[in-house]
Design brief:
The chain is α/β, with parallel strands linked by helices and about 260 residues long. It is built from eight helices and 15 strands.
């Protein structure tokens, strides 16, 4: 029974990785991919649906869509300003000659805008960055390959991870859907959590999390990092002071972007 449980958990993880890279999946296709009966796939998807991770429909399922990034909403102007101030502080951690790892997200996009004209090398899976390039960009840019997720505007999957495993950065800037003193950094999408883990490992623990205050004290579906793996958090004044005090108590450097 224990062995069956381990197999099921492994299949669940692979299911989530597949769902993260596609708009939807069909039961028949999944059964063929995993070489199991369709009833087994239906049971797996039902269990994930009970956890609130996937949405079932007749014959298939899709990953529960996270809210669209604030950058794609007309109501995001105020939050964009906060992210810009966070990015300005975060950019102070970058030195000429650094190899900078940037994860997906609108706050890391703001970091890119601050360091795009520095003498640095930037490695990213954030596809939004491509649209930010201009004739004045002096940073050397490497965009990781992979499957494009239209909801997150990021590249993820086995190809992304394979390439990233061959790269060693000097510092990483990670966005996150949520972080808390009890559950660490968590993401609504498994593939994004996987990228954060790998970027942290490939930058030898020199990890800077950039997250506005709405992400602090919250928990999402998939764990990406323990708080002990984060060296610095840059956030804004709306973050929960009790949460920030807990982070500082374990040695994390916390910087607050002031409101003008």
């Amino acid at each position: 029974m224990a062995k069956t449980g381990r197999i099921s958990a492994s299949r669940h993880q692979k299911l989530l990785e597949l769902l993260a890279s596609r708009d939807f999946v069909r039961v028949a296709d999944l059964a063929e991919t995993f070489r199991v009966a369709e009833i087994t796939i239906r049971r797996d998807l039902d269990e994930l649906a009970e956890q609130g991770v996937v949405e079932r429909f007749h014959g298939g399922a899709r990953l529960v869509a996270p809210p669209l990034p604030m950058a794609f909403s007309e109501t995001s102007l105020g939050r964009d300003a906060e992210k810009q101030r966070i990015a300005q502080i975060a950019a102070g951690y970058v030195r000429p000659g650094d190899t900078v790892l940037l994860s997906g997200g609108t706050t890391t996009l703001a970091v890119f805008r601050e360091i795009a004209h520095m003498d640095v090398r930037i490695i990213t899976n954030n596809a939004m960055i491509i649209g930010e390039l201009d004739d004045d960009t002096t940073a050397e840019l490497f965009v990781l390959g992979g499957e494009y997720n239209r909801r997150t505007r990021a590249l993820n999957g086995d190809l992304t991870n394979l390439t990233l495993n061959q790269i060693h950065g000097t510092i990483s800037f990670l966005g996150t859907n949520a972080m808390s003193q009890t559950n660490g950094l968590t993401s609504s999408i498994y593939a994004a959590a996987s990228i954060n883990r790998l970027m942290a490992a490939q930058s030898n623990g020199n990890v800077v999390v950039v997250a506005d205050g709405s992400k602090v004290g919250r928990t999402s579906h998939f764990v990406s990092l323990a708080l002990s793996q984060v060296r610095t958090l840059v956030t804004d004044e709306s973050a929960d002071p009790a949460e920030l005090a807990a982070y500082r108590s374990i040695g994390m450097d916390v910087e607050i972007a002031p409101t003008p």
